[in-house]
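I am still getting used to backbone structure tokens and would like to learn alongside you. Label the sequence line and the structure token line clearly, so we can match residues to local backbone shapes. Go ahead whenever you are ready, and we will take it from there:
>
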Amino acid sequence: MFNGPESRLRKALNKKRPAIGSWLQASSPTCAEILANAGFSWLGIDCEHTSSGIQGVEAVARAIYGRDTALLVRVSSADTLEIRQCLDVGAAGVIVPMVETTAQARTAVAAAKYPPQGVRGYCFGRMNDWGSRFDEYAASANKNVVVIAMIETRTGVDNIDEILSVAGIDGIFIGPYDMSGSYGVPGQTQHPLLKKAYQTLVAACNRHGKVAGQHIVNSTPEKLGAAVELGYTFICLDADIILINQAARAVMETARKSFNLK
């Protein structure tokens, strides 16, 4: 666990090399295993917009343990206990939604780091093999644990330099739909106001040496190429439910054509 996908993800983030992941929204360990076996470097289980709780996070962590994929958790908020629990059951880091201020960023980092950098509590758990590797995990956790701030509002964009100045924030992940609502153009994720905001965020990441993240839905080579050109390196492709939906519809379309069905 200590020289595995968690530390490899950390190295990719530090060097701003592409780190390709996907969302887990079905709360299914089986889906997580399948995506991990496909080669994603990280998977993010969504505990903000789904029914997934701490037991679901633990089940997914077990499912992909030993594979070359790090687990990140999109927590419901910058909540100290929730962040602590997710890390203790085996997550490599957290993606924290709706970060708008330095105070929220500091709270998230403090929850994810052991003293003196933070307030995370020590214990025996999955993350340290139930205490058998306590010393090794405790010594490496603050260096390896990932904290990504989701920027989803106009206020977050306005405060981006202050947010990225918080030690322990590794980068940002843009939430385009919430941001479009914040700018008064709900659903128009390619509106000129949003495009300008994206540029502001990526430029700030470059100034601070932090990674910029983007969710690419219905991914294509063209969309991936555009993301790379714009400077995104923390990339989320689709989601388990999107990939299942696309594959199911594709095989049914093939079946309809083969059997001449309407």
Notes: The chain has one domain: 5-259.
